[in-house]
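User: My instructor asked us to take a sequence, write out its structure as tokens, and then describe one feature of it. I'm not sure where to start. Here is the sequence I was given:
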Amino acid sequence: MGSKNPYTVEHVAPGIILERSADKELIIVNVASGGQTGLAIWEKCVRALLTNWPPDIPCLLLHDLHKINAKTLKVNLRGHLENLNRFQPDMGRRAAVILPPEIDEKQFLLPETILERAHAYPIQQGFFESRRAALDWILSDNP
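Assistant: Let's start with the prediction itself. The structure tokens for your sequence are:
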């Protein structure tokens, strides 16, 4: 008897690893390291995922960015998230972002929050300090 692997792992670019659930509803995008270049590669990978996402499968994305330098994220992440939120704006999705522990998510999101902008589109977005909290939220029935 063989056992089923509940997910697959794919190295898609330097420093970018995707974990796909067996039902293909959840994709975890792990960004291993990098500054501005790592974020640009991450955005490009996510755009490719969204472009090829089957319309009949719910879109659940978990972006694990906790290994990226906090200073780099503070300066560059907003722009990348806004670009992704505007990309395929009619596509509903739920996206969780894991930030490094040095970033206070509330301080990071103020004054004009990314969450408020995301609500202009059918996107539910949350920011977390741990993978467990992000997974609990993204897989819950209530955002």
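For the description part of your assignment, you could build on this observation: Residues 46 and 52 are 10 Å apart (CA to CA). Try explaining in your own words what that tells you about the chain.
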